[in-house]
C-alpha cells in the first residue's frame, strides 16, 4: 500500500527557518514563510531581486556565502533549494534530529513537501499531489480562486465573530449546532458579497434572538 503524506498547519511564530539557495525556488518558499512570524535566514552567495528587497526591509536575514553545516543550527524547517543536487544532499546530511527538511529536487528524501495554496484571510485552501504533478496542484488552486473569491475573507471573519457570539450567548448545544449550520447557508455569504455589513449583522442578530429565547 502506498504511504501518503500527512497534512498539518504549522505555527511558526518565533521559530527559525533556514532556506539554502537564493534562486527562484528559494524565493517562492521564502515568500510563503513571510507572514508566519518565523525568523527566516537565507544562506546563498546570490539572491533574486525580490529576496534582496526582503533583506533590505528586514524581513529576512541573509548569509552571503555557500552553505556550511553550522548554518543549520536550531532551525525547525530547512529548505534545500539550490541548483546543485550535491549541495542539497549535503544539507540533508547536516540535518539534526527533530528538524524537518524540504529538498527542491528530491521529494523522496524530504520530510515534507509544500502544497500550492490559495489564501483568503484566515481561509487557506491547499492542493497537493505528493510530487506527482506540482503543475496540476497550481492549476487546481487557480480554479479554486475563481470560485472562492475575495468575499471569503470578509465572510470567514464574519463567521468567526458570529461563532464567538453564539458560543457566548446560546447555551443549548442543540440550538448552537442549528445556528452554526444556518450560518453556512448562502444568504449570509450573499450579504458578505454585497458588502452590506448592516444587512449581514441584522440577519445574524435576528436569527440569534429567535433562537436564544427559552434557552435552557
Ligand atoms: C515535491 C515538491 C517539493 C517541494 O518543493 O515542496 C516539488 C518538486 C518539484 N517541482 C518541480 C518543478 C516545478 N514546480 C513548480 C511549482 C511548484 N512546486 C510546488 C511544490 C512542489 N514541487 C512539491 C510537490 C507539491 C505537490 O505535488 O503537492 C508548489 C506547488 C509549491 C511551492 O513550491 O511553493 C509550486 C506551485 C505553486 C505556485 O506556483 O504557487 C513548477 C512551476 C513553476 O515553477 O512555475 C515547476 C516547473 C514545471 C514542472 O516541472 O512541473 C520539480 C522538477 C524540477 C526540475 O525540472 O529539475 C520538482 C522535483 C521533482 O519532481 O523531483
Ligand atoms: N520544488 C520546486 O518547486 C522546484 C524545484 N526545482 C529544482 O530546484 C532547483 C533550484 O531551482 P532555481 O531556484 O530555479 O535555481 P537558481 O539557479 O535560480 O538558484 C540556485 C540558487 O542556489 C544558490 N546556491 C548554489 N550553490 C549554493 C551553495 N553551495 N550554498 C548556498 N546556495 C547555493 C545559487 O547562488 C542560487 O541563488 C532546480 O535545480 C530544480 O532541481 C525547480 C523548479 C521547481
UniProtKB/TrEMBL annotation:
Pathway, per record: Porphyrin-containing compound metabolism; siroheme biosynthesis; sirohydrochlorin from precorrin-2: step 1/1
Gene3D superfamilies: NAD(P)-binding Rossmann-like Domain (3.40.50.720), SirC, precorrin-2 dehydrogenase, C-terminal helical domain-like (1.10.8.610)
GO molecular function: ferrochelatase activity; precorrin-2 dehydrogenase activity
Single GO biological process annotation from the record: siroheme biosynthetic process
Keyword Oxidoreductase: yes
Keyword annotations from UniProtKB, A to Z: NAD, Oxidoreductase, Porphyrin biosynthesis
Enzyme Commission code: 1.3.1.76
PANTHER family: SIROHEME BIOSYNTHESIS PROTEIN MET8 (PTHR35330)
Protein name: precorrin-2 dehydrogenase
Species this chain originates from: Aneurinibacillus aneurinilyticus ATCC 12856
Phylogenetic placement of the source organism: Bacteria, Bacillati, Bacillota, Bacilli, Bacillales
